[in-house]
Every structure is written in structure tokens, then in C-alpha cells.
Amino acid sequence: MSETGSHENVSDENLPSEQAQAHGAVEKADDPFADPGLPPHEHRIQDIDERAAKRSERTVALMFTVSMLATVAFIASYVAFPIDKIVYVWPLGRVSILNLALGLTLGIALFFIGAGAVHWARTLMSDEEMVDERHAVAADPETEAKVKADFVQGAKESGFGRRKLIRNTMFGAVALVPLSGVVLLRDLGPLPEDKLTHTLWRKGKLLVNENTNEPLRPEDVSVGSLTFARPEGLEHDDEEFNNEIAKAALMIVRLEPGDIKDKKELDWSHEGIVAYSKICTHVGCPVSLYEQQTHHVLCPCHQSTFDLSDGARVIFGPAGHPLPQLKISVNKDGYLEAQGDFEEPVGPAYWERKR
Fold it and tell me: Which strands sit side by side in the sheet containing 296-298, from one edge to the other?
């Protein structure tokens, strides 16, 4: 009797079926696993206390403001700290103070944008769960109108229009963060100005053999041979050697004057000795393979092929223009010398060059 009586005293509203009907659940007859529905909505303190809502608003605004300050600190760090300054930071050890500052400030800037957005959503935007039945992908006019109305309602409940402090600080944080990427573009290096259009070659500069380190005479270059040269005064132990040789590297070939088809090439040569840039005009690899019978030189990287008997024009491969020629002659002491710089920039094309 006591067991039966206890069951009778249980309120009907505590039964799963009654809960399901109370909270919008769909109940099927004789279904022991009926959907219990959503629990009753519990209001947050921000929903019923405007002072609490204002505190949350100020907290979100503070996070967005911290993000803005961190972005400013990122830019200031980039300008203030030298790239080669190393400091000891436990437990990281020895690190670049510039990299450390950039990583911390950018991380803080991105973190507080996310944290502000999350705090805004959890404390101020509507958190009431809504049940909507599945519908076809193609919406009918009534559904479209409902979606638009829901969007307007959601925007209104988010307080985006009403809470101007959050809105303005969020705009500021999101607008400043991309400046970090813009500033990092400076790491591409200083502006080249006219450095790409000039090399160390000048009028009177002797052609120095890369293998012997001695100035070249015409008799040192035999027909069919390939010789590499550099400008006089550029030594291997120079601090800027790699930067300069990347532009000034020269290859010298001796052809029979009658085999030279291009008049300018013939005028710029000496007794069939022609001098061309060694830097491929595709991506800057060193051209180093010479075919004596055809007078062709081949770039080993991507097989661009140039005809040295016809102005070093491209006859195969991805290179976009001929190898630049260096005008040479012989000085009074019998050494090969340059008559000036290359007439056009060496190496791959870029948008500022004329060809």
C-alpha cells in the first residue's frame, strides 16, 4: 500500500510526458523515449540588472581596448628593437627581443579580440534556446520573412546598435590588427631603389678570371671555351661579395667573328670574345652549361637555353628575355676591360624594368 500511495502522490507535472508538453517537445503515443524538451530558461544577472549589463559592457570594451594597445605596441616594438638584439628569457633561453616582443604583442592583440567577442556573446547577447523544425532547403516566402525577422531580432538583442561603447571599441580593435601584417611587409627588406639596375661593372674595370684570380687577356680565352669572370676589386672575402657577385657574375665565350649574327653583339665584343651576364633571366640561377657546336648556353635549373651567337636570345625554356651583354675591349696593357655597366638589369624580370 505504501508503495502504491507514494506513486499516487507524485505530481503529474514531474512526469516526462508532462514536461515534454510544457516545453514544446513533440510526444509520440506510447513512446518511452519521448523528447523531454528544453529546460526552463534561466535569466542571467545581466538580463535583469542593467548595472551588471553595463559592467559586462565595460569589460568587453576594455578587452577590445587592450587589443588596440597591443597592436600599437607591436608596431612600436618593430621600430624600437633591433633584429640582432639577443636576451635571456627563462625558460626560453636566448631569444631575439624583437621576435619575443612581436609574438607577445600580436598574441595579446588577437587573444583579446576573441575574448571580448566571447564575453560579449555569453553575457549580453541573447542566450535563449529556440526550437525550429527542419525545413526544405529552398525556403518559401514565409520562411525568408521569418529569417529576416529573426536576424533583425538577433541584432537587436545583441545590443550592437544600442551598446555603442562595445561597437566602437570592437571596430577599433579589428581595424588595427591588420596593421600588424602591413608592418611585417617591411621585413621583405629595404626598398631596392636603383640597386637592381646597376652592378660593379664600370668603364675600365678589368675582367678577373674566377679560377685564377688574374686579369684576363684575349689570348687566355680560346675558341669554344667558357670562362667565368668578376669585376676587378671584388674579392671573395669582401663582406658584400655574395650580394655583388649575384649581379656582376660574367661568362666569357670566344666565337669565330663570322659566327656572330647580331651586329650589336659583334660591336660589343673583342675579336669574337663576348661577355654576357651569368645570371639566368628566369629565376636567377647561374647559367653554366655551354654547347660548343651550337653556341648555346643552358641554365641547369629549368633548362632555359640562350643562343650566344645571336644576342643571347632565348630559344627554349621559361626565361623571358635575353642575357644582358657587357661591352668589352682591350686596354693599353693588353687586358680585357669593361666599357661600362650592363645596359639593362640582370636576372629575372620585375615590374619596374623596361624589358
Answer: 289-291, 296-298, 305-307, 313-316
Backbone angles phi, psi at 26, to 5 degrees: -95, 115
The pLDDT of residue 11: 45
Cα-based distances in Å from 182 to 77, 78, 188: 14, 12, 11
Residue among 51, 117, 105 nearest 77 (CA): 105
Asked if residues 221 and 229 have their Cβ atoms less than 8 Å apart, the reply is: no
- CA distance linking residue 305 with residue 299, whole number of Å: 6
3-state secondary structure 215-243: ECCHHHCCECCEEEEEECCCCCCCCCHHH
C-alpha 327 chain-centroid distance: 40
The least confident of 67-76, 102-111, 192-201, 219-228 is 192-201
Q: What is the pLDDT of residues 43-85, one digit of tens each?
A: 899 989 999 999 999 999 999 999 999 999 999 999 999 888 8
**Comparing C-alpha atoms, which of 201, 187, 275, 193 is closest to residue 231?**
201
The count of other CB atoms within 10 Å of the CB of residue 137 is 4
Q: What is the DSSP letter of 252?
A: E
98 torsion bin: left (phi>0), alpha (psi -120 to 50), beta (else) = alpha
Rounded to the nearest 10 degrees, what angle do helices 164-176 and 50-80 cross at? 20
In 3D space, the residue among 24, 220, 211, 259 whose CA is nearest the CA of residue 129 turns out to be 24
The model's pLDDT over 95-114, given as tens digits with 9 standing for 90+, comes to: 899 999 999 999 999 999 99
Contact 309, 266 (CB under 8 A): no
CA pair distance 82, 63, nearest whole angstrom: 29
β partners of residue 339:
203
Grid cell 601584417 is found at 181
> To 5 degrees, how large is the angle CA 110–CA 115–CA 118?
130
155-164: long-range contacts (C-beta < 8 A, 24 or more apart)?
157/125, 157/126, 158/120, 158/124, 158/125, 158/126, 159/57, 159/124, 159/125, 163/57, 163/124
What is the CB neighbour count within 10 angstroms for residue 188? 7
